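Final paragraph of the annual report: two paired records, presented back to back.
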Amino acid sequence: MKHATTTESTDVLLVGGGIMSATLGALLTELEPTWKITLVERLDEIGKESSGVWNNAGTGHSALCELNYAPMKADGTVGTAKAVTINEQFQTSRQFWATMVEEGKLGQASDFINPVPHISMVFNDDHVRYLKARHEAFKQHKLFERMEYSEDRDQLAQWAPLTMRGRGSESVAATFAPEGTDVNFGELTRQLVAHMSANGAEVRTGTQVSNLNKESDGTWTACTTNRLDSEDSREIRAKFVFVGAGGGALPLLQKSGIPEIKGFGGFPVSGLWLRNTKPEIAEQHNAKVYGQASVGAPPMSVPHLDTRFENGEKSLLFGPYGGFKPNFLKQGSLFDLPRSVRTDNLYPMTRAGLANLDLVKYLISELMKNKEQRVEALQEYYPTADGDDWELVHAGQRVQVMRKDKEKGGVLQFGTELITAEDGSIAGLLGASPGASTAVPIMLDLLAKCFPQHKGTWQSRLTELIPAYGRTLDDDPRLADEIMGHTGGVLGIK
């Protein structure tokens, strides 16, 4: 017997219970408190997929230590534009979080963000020359003025003792940024969603969205089922839909039929970490130490030795070790990748794949590593590490954007891509790092594209939430000192 489908209505439907949906929901709760907001998440808890504490590195991505954001140019100089932009974006996120803490809408800041210096460390003469040039280039920018550079081993040992203990005579250099952070995006997500819920938003976990259909009046109908009770099916009619479902965003946007998603594909990359939870070892390291990526490795696979905080407990993490699984979510289906192939994206995906054979080779080599080989990689950053002290854990699944390109036919794109329908009634986010750290500016971009009619009425509240809204800090030293000093104080960052 077929059970009747319940139909509901809402102003805003958020699909996915991660940091992106939580950020957008929290912003709209502040901007339009009378709007009805509904959030649905396929798992039984909020913030457990890509936003989960061990599913990402937790780096407050501000380009302080991530070398791939500042590439060496053909003329031998280092490009800083992307790094400055990412740092500006993270400062925007910090401002929003600080305001929400000050207004009592988030809990204690140390529950989700902690000061952890960011270090870039390189080995061999060529990489040392690059890092020195990078530091020289960054010194010109206000947002990087506190960064220090050193080749002195005693200094490096003070910054990151474990990295220098037992190290050989190779060339080594590092930069040190004291204002770096570790962010528990899972906890931050849960706090943002709790704020939404306390203000009337409906939060429904264990709910799978199977389809999205546009109605003649411009609204959207989402077909949902209860993952624990297949007979509990509902249709949710929404004026606006945001698909913030991580790797699950691509298939849902494809089902929506919007022309803007045509030509897009996804390339899933899995990962593994080595984790050390021994307090006596974790207490000897307080930094996120990033190095240079292997040839062919995606930016998300840059090796790093990190301090991580979860529920006040300090641990160490090293990795990630890349891998490949065809599922788009950590708890997804092995058929996700083949099911995402369409006539409109087959050629771009093929061209992008052929152009990135180094990546394929890299992932295959990573998959074939045993624990001993993974420990050898760890020992490049922590020479005296004992493999018995470390356990292997699975990181989150990342789906890199593949898209059409006029010249190359198709390209593999690192970073995030905001997809919005022409009428602004639906939007979704594809891609990965540095997404979580830049969630606030990405959602501000979405608001501007999808709700342009509200720009004037929202301006005042947005400026309260984000004091430097619409301005750049790197070009205004006085403003930068004021904003960064205030938000740093609220969030407990130096």
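The closing record of the year follows.
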Amino acid sequence: MRRLAFAAVAALVFGAGCAAGSTDSGPVLDVSAAASLKGAFTAIAEEFEKRHEGVAVRLSFDGSSTLANQIEQGAPADVFASADEKNMAKLGGLAVDPRTFATNTLVIVTAPGNPKGIDSFADLNKPGVTTVVCQSAQPCGAATDAVEKNAGITVAAASEEQSVGAVLTKVTTGQADAGVVYVTDAAAAGDTVSTVTDPVFAGVVNAYPIATLKDAPDAGLGSEFVALVLGPDGQRILRDAGFGSP
């Protein structure tokens, strides 16, 4: 699949007078997580804060490649959760003992009712169908590339987005007829989209690793957050969001 040039990574900006790792009211745990984890990790962060009085979890969601680049450039982060192993590996020794905590697969989303009659992965190339996908640098894009290879089909995408959330937005706002996203994103979108499955998706499974980061401001709290994600309560939240087991 032809991919657009990767956009330059934007710098993280925090409020004036707010040092990374703490606020006037208490410690802050910075968690960078793949965009597809937004719903599940928001719920896990709320549970973590209930268990750690005075601690605030500051969540940053974006494409995994974007987040990994930001961390490499010094953005404050205690924990990184990636939608694939490749972007975790990119951090090398910065990532401490990565552990797989979930899996995910792809699905097609369309406008409600599937007005363009898309019934398969091949139908994304039907005349009159505007399709959007993720950039290859992002896990959702790399997974789409693998599906294309397995199916022997190259999707003529109208645009290639920086995150799976951006793909979903293009479809729900009517800017695209169809998009390739994770099953969890489709589930979270509810009746704002229709979904189309294809057997070829089953052959590409993304493993999601999580790790604390070397020299993190709050490494201890980070380890406790990772333990919550890997533990029964975190796994229940992830299953409820549609993620597969590690």
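Residues 22-101+209-240 form a domain with the D-Maltodextrin-Binding Protein; domain 2 fold (CATH 3.40.190.10). This concludes the annual technical report; the extension proposal builds directly on these records.
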